[in-house]
Amino acid sequence: MDLSFSGLLTAVIEALHEGKYSLEDLCYSLQEVAFSMLAEVTERAVAHTEKTEVLLTGGVAANRRLQLMIKSIADEHNARFCVVPKEYALDNGAMIAWTGILAYQHGMTIPIERSFVKLRWRLDEVQIPWVEAKKCF
């Protein structure tokens, strides 16, 4: 369920230079295509995992259009839809730090020599013992 936006912005820039479409129309189309891709992956994930909750996070969670699209999918699958409050969704650094605090509080530590970035790390492989303590923040 990986997404690649490679080429999407390039295509929009090329269309802009052709002069056939307005900047506003191209921006709207870019947003709709990108959000549709996110929505499709979200729907596939909910359908395959049969999860009962969908949480929208990150800076993009503040976008009302994306919220509506993802909420629609959650509703179709009878899943609870949550959006991280805007004041917590704007900075991924803060979210990473908070995850580190939660991990540390639950006894999860990694020696620096064993810590590294693991590309394409599946979220279902990440240990999150604090989820058992609280279902939704």
Write up this protein.
This protein has two domains: 1-90, ATPase, nucleotide binding domain (Nucleotidyltransferase, domain 5); 92-137, no CATH class. Strands 1-2 form a two-stranded parallel sheet. It is globular and about 60 Å long. The mean pLDDT is 87. It has 137 residues and is mainly alpha-helical. Helix 1 (8-18) packs antiparallel against helix 2 (23-49). The chain has six helices and two strands, in the order H-H-E-H-E-H-H-H.
- Shape by Cα distribution: globular
What is the average per-residue confidence, as pLDDT, rounded to a whole number?
A: 87
Relevant CATH superfamily of the largest domain = ATPase, nucleotide binding domain
Residue runs with pLDDT of under 50 for 5 or more positions = none
How many distinct helices? 6
Helix content: 40-55%
Largest sheet: 2 strands, parallel
Biggest sheet strand order reads 1-2
**Strand/helix succession:** HHEHEHHH
Radius of gyration: 18 Å
End-to-end gap: 26 Å
How many structural domains does the protein architecture include? 2
CATH architecture of the largest domain: 2-Layer Sandwich
